[in-house]
Fold:
Amino acid sequence: MLNPHGPLEGPESFTPATKIWSISDLTSGLRQLVEQQFEDIWVEGEISNFKQHSSGHCYFSLKDADSQIRCVMWRSVAEQVFFKPRDGMLVRAFGSVSVYEARGELQLVVRALRPAGEGALQKAFEALKKRLASEGLFDQAHKVDLPRFPETIGVVTSGDGAALRDILSILARRFPLVQVLVSPVHVQGAGASDEIAAAVRTFNELPKDSFPRPDCLIVTRGGGSIEDLWPFNEEVVARAIYDSVIPVVSAVGHETDFTIADFVADVRAATPSMAAEVVVPNRFDVAAAVDGMARSMRDNLEGEIIRLKHHVRALTASYAFRRPVEEIGIRQRNVADLYHRLSRIMSHSLQNRHLKLIGLEQMLRTLDPDRPLELGFARVERGKVPITRAAELHTDDLVVLRFKDGARESRIL
Amino acid sequence: MNLSNDNPVKPELKFEQAFKRLEEIVAQLESNELPLEDALDVYEEGIGLARYCMDRLNAAELRVRELTLD
Structure:
């Protein structure tokens, strides 16, 4: 509307009729106008600056080459969105435009969000699959074998779905000696992927006490559309499965649906029921094997005992076994023989010795230092030292004369 | 099936360990390399393990518990 007063006239020319808007009135008016014109519309654009607050509400912008508009998506709506919106994603949003009066800002209140166009989901799937494959998340070398006999099985799935019922039923029939720990989660909607990933990580963090750490995990849900299965295509789930130290069996959807989770998992089962079949053996097969082993042990032991018995019998019957008895007889005779010979030698040798001893005795007697005393000689000692030559003595020496019957002192002249 | 919070069962021996040891014993006895006394000891151990495995396999009920995330 042109100003009737011309360009040079303006704010100064107030008349009582001029409406002076308050900001609140302006924004409120704008809001009404906009809401009338742009209610329940579909908008296509690229997501940017996507943020989800702890409240669950999402704030982002949708843009095209030339323009952008701010958007808000309340938590109740966000929960219904099956994929995680990411910056750069082309989407279609359904909602109404309004004005956030407090800030005078246009905003699109989004009530539904989809990926844009045909095959947009498929494209997103392919892009993520390619990226994760290049990072090695699908590598065969990283996959581990399932334990032969798990003690505890962790299951991540919907708490009240058919998948869980099928798995429990099959485990009960097939191998009831296991313990099953169930972590119930949402299996569709945007929050689902976070819950599934958190459940896998929580199982990995369990210590081995009251809730013992499972020996393997089953991550599963029943069939559905690509949107329903989408949480199992989210990166956060793929990373949690890849990081899991516990082997993971993925069973999402039906035979031909492959999700990213299926590629990352250690084993992929076509259905939840097949997952239950793959994680445990049939207890009747195992019982038969145990029985077979018990029998084998008994047979082997019996066989061994019989073998040894034969061996012993053969030995006692053999010449070699009898021979020792004869041998003892022979040896006894030898010993008796030797004894006689020894005795003879001993007595001869004793006689010789005796003569020799007598001879030595006589010699010893002649060498006895006291023998001369017997013959009447005396030994001369000076200060306990024996004197054998007169030349050793001096006048006035005090000596001791030892006779056979005693000793007397004497002085040398 | 029951969904319960009973006292956790703590088997002294994991089934896997029992079964594996049983397999080892069978192999030992088959090899005939053990002296008789050792064979008897090992046989006794093996029979005990076989009994343990059968008892566990005859378990009547699947134990199911719920793990809630905080």
Observations:
- Chain A has a mean pLDDT of 87.
